Amino acid sequence: MNKKEKVSVGLPDNLREIIIEIPEDEPKPWDGKSELNYIGKRVKRIDGIDKTTGKAKYTFDVKIPGMLYAKFLRSDFPAGTISEIDLSKAQKLKGVYSVLPAQDDLPLIIRYAGQEIAAVAAETAEIAETALQQITFKHTTSDFVLSVEDAIRENAPLVYQTTVKEKTTEGDLDSSESSVVQEGNIRGPKIFPEDENAEKFDDYLRNCEVIHTAEYRTQVQTHSAMETHGVVVEWGSDDKVKVWASTQGTFSVRNDIADYFKLKYNDVRVITEFMGGGFGAKFGAGLYGIMAAKLSRATGKPVRLMLDRKGEHLSVGNRPDSLQKLSIGTTKEGKIKALKLISLGTGGVGTGAGTSGPIKNIYDYEKIYVEESDVFINAGPAAAFRAPGHPQGAFALEQAIDEMAHKLGIDPLEFRRINTTGNYIRQTQYVLGAEKFGWDKRNQVPGSIKGPIKRGFGVANSVWYYIYNKGFVATVTINRRGEVQVINGVQDIGGGIGTVLAMIVAEELGLEPDQITVKIGDTDNGFGPASGGSQTTAGITPAVRNAAYKAKIRMIELAASILGKTTDKVTMEGSRFSDGDDISKSLSFQQVAAKIPGDEIRVTAERRSDNLGREEIKTTIDGVQFADVTVDTGTGVVKVNRIVAVHDCGRPMDRLTLESQINGGIIQGISYALYENRILDRNTGIMVNPNLEMYKIAGARDVPQIETIIMDFNQAMNSTGAMGIGEPATIPTSAAIANAVFNAIGVRLRSLPITPDKILAALEEQSK
Amino acid sequence: MIKDFEYYLPKATEQALTLFSKNSAYKAGGIDLLDLLKENIVSYDSIINLSGIDSLDFIDTEIDLKIGAGVSIQKIADSQPIQKYCPALSESASEIATPHIRNIATLGGNLCQKPRCWYFRSKDFDCSRKGGKVCFAIDGENKYHSIYGNQDGCAFVNPSGMATVLTALNARLQILTKKEIKTINLRDFYYLPAEKLTCEHKLNDGEILLSVTVEKENLLRKNYYCKIKEKQSSDWPIAEICIIGGINSLGNFENVSIVLGSAAPIPWRMIKEEKKLEGLQATTKYIGNVVESSFSDANPLRDNAYKVKLFRTLLYRGLCSIAGLESER
User: Is B4 touching A (CB cutoff 8 A)?
Assistant: First the structure.
């Protein structure tokens, strides 16, 4: 049975009313006119004190009596074949419990320096380390390739002799495996639109009145979450397996372990109470999870396998690099007619180097042509990384857009405006952002400021998508003492979803967030979303609100029976239940709860599809960022002074944690723009900076003033109307910085990271 | 894994001297030593911690400036006399690493730290400085390596910010040996790879660096210090310069000392430029001429030619600053 509700949708100053149809057992969605106590306000994390005082225990902190420490032996050569492994000496070492090869059968083909060869479980980490040194093996080495350019040469050494099937996780956007060809080290191209003819397209492009073409490069960025990948596995004597995991998807870890060892899902329990960050590489059990489980099974003891920082840089994921040739064709007036992207990128021995998201989804165009290919090299595998493909794509596209605007003599923001006319969210974002930032004060002629220290402004767009999955089950309980719990398996990877769930239940029941006990991060707690695709909040919050609503209905029914009235006569003010006919007769939440039959009310609700029978829901998440930088032309050092970020993400839940995610995305974007770079020694294939000393990440002194404008965009497509922000916020930052650098010095930096050596070289080139 | 070692915490330098045996190491802050141990680059049978020795922790300005080797980098940054007498030294100190490290790291440790070259620091590379046959940087990833002194089988850069400034200040080191307290001029302290390939300086095994002295005549002179880092939080410099000098009553340069950091395996003195500047009128034109003709003897590697441009800027800006002129570069 469905019911009809009138809701106000759109932006706050431009709301319109629509009638929607929703299931009987769901509350009226929060909309643009809802007046709420917590939702959309700034609420501090419920676990903030635990985290800052060290009371919060992460997977890294788990210590169980008898627990063994496991470590990997990794290859120090990038290509070859291991034909024999001798584990016996390591096994004999005192304190060593088990030594296992990383692959059951030999030969083991080594495809990158850092690949796992074997794992040891021992009483202490030190013994495990010593044991690794006792493992010997027979191997041959072979030729290798370390860059896209080398890998696509004729007769280049092949990374794979076999066809590679793309592996995707919840962090990846496109999990459909289409028929992609693999030739040499190139897997691709994927062509878009599939039926487009390249030559015809080129004719069309050539006939555009103004054309810009350039090549853009981005580097490999490795995953550098504070907590490394890892697990503690306790394989019980009853073959029930308990896993503590630093993961973005508790259920994906459970499924991988259960599938691999042919166990019942019900016999594998995965716990992620606190989690030290993940940017897309922490889905599934990983080889470390499988090996820890094998070692635990073999020894009958709990096994801890947390990667060290080096292992983290080498083996568990990175953002692929890219080499993008991008063309734009416009009319003289600046209307985009044609967009073309030829993209090559390497995810090392992995896939997922596509970059076409932004070019397909931001601007209006008549025709588009995209070819994108993965190129294999002998380096660690890529994994989903905060908006896969999008920071790379935006870096190229948004600089090309800027270059085109410059060529046409049109203000870069105006050029963006006239080519996104159908998107009123963007149009609003441009206005809000430009005003807050002071766009009109920018240096009109790039590079024209006198003196060696030059300041510049830049702008760039981002795009992401409204993604959610269904079937998540949230439970809300109220016991006879009036204690309230919200229960779900979802993990909090740092975004603060636990706080948001408490806020939602508190809002619905008229309580305060700290009155709500939040139980999350456990596969025994009911199916919850994986934190990939920026879908955690959009995925779980409607189920939680719906469950809280059901619990509220039960409480109202109970209050009605106590008051001797029908439920429609009971009104709820805050958490008090009153007789609608006689307001003086009212009951507190506790008074009603005390009459709960048995022990508690326990209700569940499921994440369903968004409202049916509706006009189309806007499914892109848009954003624009403005950057203010200073470039020292004598030293090449770039300093980011200020970023203004304007983003929409549906209806904001906790504005404080939301801002925090935007801040984090921007800081990571700055780090990507200016510092981070995986450097492989060209002669040996070994990464020379597998640490956080020479793999450079933005620190406190590199963080600029960040100002965010969060647009409340109500669509009332479900009971909460939340969308995601984790990924969108990092997409445009590097492009905005690059455009600001151009505005400052009048020279284009088309290659990331923008380091002093590149700035100095570009300036020298220009002065020639 | 760190091999087990004996650990000593002596209270006096004499005791520390006698505790030293065949495969021992002295530790002060331990910032460098612990990293080397953890990466299995070195291992010792015993480690003698000097941080309990109070007599190494002092700053004395009575006649000359004398700083104990055990003084923390943060204390140097915060010291008012140092800020007054040689601001370049406190500036350099305040730019080192992170607050945590500055609180623990010492002057002595900073001067004597091992190379930060990524090939040297990795167990995966058996490089010439570790006794191997090859310098992997020469044909490898050498963006952060040296532009001087790199033709003798090793291309690391001296990482000590303190050394750059103290070399310009012509500091002397007091070193305790079993026999005596000897003095070495800091300008003679470091080895070029051509002299010694696996050892960076003249502090021999079993000797203790006691203190560093800057003579009165080198204090209260004009100071210029600049460190360029790719990022501003905790990063090693890509270029560093310290200029100590003066302008005489005629407006000419006088007794200028120029030292580059992150340029060579030792703090790199620009002796030729110092000579050219002596008596030269301090104008932007003449400074420009000196800068233009400098660095012709540098030997940049494939990825670090940018350092030459960078150092030219620093030299120009530094000399303008010493001369009280506004820099146009």
Answer: no
Q: Are B179 and B285 in contact (CB under 8 A)?
A: no
As beta bridge partners, residue A516 has A484
How far, in Å, CA of A122 to CA of A759, rounded?
50
CB-based contact B1 A130, cutoff 8 Å:
yes
**CB-count exposure of residue A464 (10 Å: 0-12, 13-18, 19+):** buried
pLDDT(A202) > 70: yes
Given CB atoms, is B5 within the 8 Å cutoff of chain A? no
SS (H, E, C) A632-663: ECCCCCEEEEEEEEEEECECCCCHHHHHHHHH
In chain A, count H helices and then E strands: 18, 31
Strands (E), A429-515: 453-465, 473-479, 484-487
- Break chain B into its structural domains and give their ranges: 54-112+158-217, 220-323
What are residue A527's phi and psi, to 5 degrees? -60, 130
For residues A364 and A292, is the Cβ–Cβ distance under 8 A?
no
- Structure tokens belonging to residue A589: 């939440």
Whole-number Å distance between alpha carbons of A631 and A239: 61
A338 - beta bridge partners? A329, A367
Q: Answer whether CATH 3.30.465.10 is correct for domain B54-112+158-217.
A: yes
Nearest CA in chain B to A699: B233
**Token pair for A766:** 């220009």
CATH of B220-323, one of 3.40.50.300, 3.30.43.10, 3.30.390.50, 3.40.50.10960: 3.30.390.50
pLDDT band at A167 (very low <50, low <70, confident <90, very high): confident
Helix (H/G/I), strand (E/B), else coil: A516? strand
Q: Which residues in chain A have Cβ-Cβ distances shorter than 8 Å to B317?
A: 634
pTM assigned to the model: 0.97
- Could you tell me the residue ranges of all domains in chain A? 66-158
| Chain A interface includes B31 (CB < 8 A) | no
8 Å CB contact between A61 and A304: no
ipTM of the shown complex = 0.97
User: What pLDDT sits at residue A532?
Assistant: 93
* Interchain CB distance below 8 Å, B232 and A675: no
Residues whose CB is less than 8 angstroms from the CB of residue A469 and which lie 6 or more positions away in sequence, other chains included: A529, A535, A539, A607
With 90 as the cut, is the pLDDT of residue A509 above it? yes
The side-by-side arrangement of strands in the sheet containing A108-110 is A108-110, A80-86, A136-141
Contacts (Cβ under 8 Å, ≥6 apart) of A573: A510, A586
Radius of gyration of chain A (CA): 28
Q: What is the DSSP letter of A707?
A: E
CA distance A737 to A395: 9
Q: What is the mean pLDDT of each run of 10 residues along chain B (329 residues)?
A: 92 97 97 95 97 97 96 98 97 96 98 98 96 97 98 97 98 97 98 97 98 96 97 96 95 97 98 97 97 97 98 98 94
Maximal CA-CA distance, chain B: 64
Please give the sequence-ordered ranges of beta strands (E in DSSP) within B51-177, or none if there are none: 59-60, 65-68, 172-176
Both tokens of A622, joined, read: 């848009």
Displacement of CA A447 from its chain's centroid (Å): 36
Name the residue among B265, B279, B192, B270 with its Cα closest to residue B224.
B270
Architecture of the structural domain at A66-158: Alpha-Beta Complex (3.90)
